[in-house]
Structure formats: structure tokens, C-alpha cells
């Protein structure tokens, strides 16, 4: 099993995305949260969508996914192990030494 898991979800509207990110931080279920504006997956193009990319430990991933699904604010939840290159640096870490 991987030591770290990347979890992604999309939320309609910046206020809902911020509220979900805040809830995740308060629950201490992610070590990193990145929020990016993305094209809206629904027809309501007037409301921008926000993709949350979260890094969590393998042991906390199920609780994080459950919290996201229980919030009823997010879309689908996509989880995958964080892969490492031959130098043992995570692929999401910029500016490797």
C-alpha cells in the first residue's frame, strides 16, 4: 500500500469549496489542500467549480472520503496512491533538490 493518497473532488461555488476545505482542515484529515478553479461539470456555467486536491495518509483516506461524501457539496471522489520517482520524492512536490 502507498503511504500517501491523493484525493480529488469538485465543488460548485467558492463558498462551498472553502467550507469543505475548512471542515477537512478542522478534522485534520489532510496534510495538504490545493484548490483550483476548473470548468463547471454541470450546465450551470454561471457558478465556477473548484477542484480540491488533498493529500492524506493511507490510514486517513477512508475517513476523508466519507467526510467529503457526507457533505453533499462535492461531486465524485477520486482517490489514488501518490507515486514516487526513483529519488523518493513525491510526483506532486515541485522544485526537487
Describe the structure.
The chain is of the alpha+beta class and 97 residues long. It is built from 2 helices and 4 strands. It has a 4-stranded antiparallel β-sheet. The protein is globular and about 40 Å long. The protein starts with a strand and ends in a 16-residue tail after the last strand.
In terms of topology, how is this protein built?
Elements: E1 4-12, H1 14-26, E2 32-38, E3 49-57, H2 61-70, E4 78-81
Antiparallel strand pairs: 1-3, 1-4, 2-3
Keywords:
97 residues, alpha+beta, single chain, 24% helix, 30% strand
Structural class: alpha+beta
- Described by the principal axes of the CA atoms, the overall outline is globular
Distance between the termini: 26 Å
Major β-sheet annotation = 4 strands, antiparallel
Radius of gyration: 14 Å
Taking all residues together, what is the mean pLDDT? 83
Helix content, binned percent: 10-25%
Counting DSSP E segments of at least 2 residues, the number of strands comes to 4
Helix and strand element order: EHEEHE
Percent in strands: 25-35%
Secondary structure tally, helices: 2
Catalogue the unreliable spans.
none
